[in-house]
Amino acid sequence: MKKKLKSSVERIKQERVFTIFLFLGLVLVAFVFITLGNMFYQQLEDLSGLIAAATNPVVLKAIGISISMSLASTLVAFFFGVPLAYFLARKEFAGKSLIEGLVDVPLMIPHVVAGIALYGVFMRHGLIGAPLRKVGIVITDAYPGIVIAMLFMSLPYLVDTAIEGFKEVDPRLENVARSLGASQWRTFREITFPLAFPSILSGAILSWGRAISEFSAVLILAYYPISAPILIYEKFTSFGLSASRPISVLLILICLLIFILLRMPQRRKK
Q: How far apart are CA 10 and CA 6, in angstroms?
């Protein structure tokens, strides 16, 4: 009887803790909901403006540029970031903290500072921009510039998440595979990568989401061709909320739909 009573008391205390945590968490949820909900509510009063934005070729092109360039930057981050993440997760060496710090720098610095730094390197007379210009490759005010700016600001999300995913894979599984004659590459391809893939996919989704929203770095490095955030900025500074809000709502709706579609495979596995 005493054990049951004690168990009930512990359960009640636990529920109280969860209730407090839920309340604290709902504050943040309410903050996001009210902010975005207000914008959507105001736009519902002007559906014609949203329809006009959804059928405007300029708006659709800008959104298409943002989606496609952010996808390209995510693929680049994946191709180079996953091997780096695996190396950092499995090896201890002098200078590891420095490399991890450099990877995380884009999370810390103002985005406009990142844009200025990128421009100094990739402008026509920059350290990298000048050699590329000689072979006919222009970075500033071009699609590659958008990808580079997005990549710089979003790569930590993929690399850091992939590192945590690889750390969760038990190295003993790799050792068993190696002891059975599997090569290092085959072990990675058939055991380590599949087990870490859910985390890598989450990192890729976060990286893509961060890239598509990038504004300041893209603004400085590649104002043209105009991506969605820059178009929204132009409309807001020139014509105010009535012109910029429909594009903002349309971009959010498209990104939300893509996020849901990308998250569906993860939910099915669970």
A: 6
Instruction: Kindly report the CATH number that applies to the domain delimited by 48-269.
Output: 1.10.3720.10
The pLDDT value given to residue 268: 59
Calculate mean pLDDT across residues 66-70.
Answer: 95
| Residue 269 pLDDT > 80 | no
Question: H/E/C letters for each residue in the chain?
Answer: CHHHHHHHHHHHHHHHHHHHHHHHHHHHHHHHHHHHHHHHHHHHCCHHHHHHHHCCHHHHHHHHHHHHHHHHHHHHHHHHHHHHHHHHHHCCCCCHHHHHHHHHHHHHCCHHHHHHHHHHHHCCCCCCHHHHHHCCCCCCCCHHHHHHHHHHHHHHHHHHHHHHHHHCCCHHHHHHHHHCCCCHHHHHHHHHHHHHHHHHHHHHHHHHHHHHCCCHHHHHHCCCCCCHHHHHHHHHHHHCHHHHHHHHHHHHHHHHHHHHHHHHHHHHHC
Q: What is the pTM of this model?
A: 0.89
Average pLDDT (103-109) is 93
Q: Residue 205: pLDDT above 80?
A: yes
